[in-house]
Amino acid sequence: MIQQVTQGIKISVKTEYGGALKKDDVFQHAFAYTISIENQSKDTVQLLSRHWRIKDSLNHPKVVQGEGVIGVKPILLPGEKHSYSSGCLLDSPIGAMRGHYNLINFATAQNLKVSIPLFNLCAPFAMN
Known about the structure:
The chain is mainly beta and 128 residues long. It has one domain (2-126): ApaG domain (Immunoglobulin-like, Sandwich), CATH 2.60.40.1470. Helices cover 0% and strands 69% of the residues. Strands 4, 5, 6, 8 and 9 form a five-stranded antiparallel beta sheet that branches. Strand 4 (45-56) and strand 5 form a beta hairpin. The protein is elongated and about 50 Å long. Residues 3-128 form the ApaG domain. InterPro entries: ApaG_domain (IPR007474), ApaG_sf (IPR036767). One of its GO terms (biological process) is error-free translesion synthesis. This is Co2+/Mg2+ efflux protein ApaG. Pfam families: DUF525 (PF04379).
């Protein structure tokens, strides 16, 4: 598990390889990831948006941005945690993701940029 704390917000990431599939005569590799966002600060925060940079070993970079996570903008009181699972398809069996969440601190009205640490995506058969 990969973990990082930024401005009192702890991000934890677990990954899993889901297998290969063929789409339009091209093989793609499915990866799932579960992220936990834990508010270790003393203030209530809300996740507003996400920004991802995804890269595979064939150097096909992708940027994904959007509001919330899986359709929600969770509000986290001090000590609370929000977890969700999602996934991505890569053209190669090896890649990586990193990014950040944009949150707002309700007590200070300050915008927070919380780092999502770099995590590798690797099919078990590709590790040698």
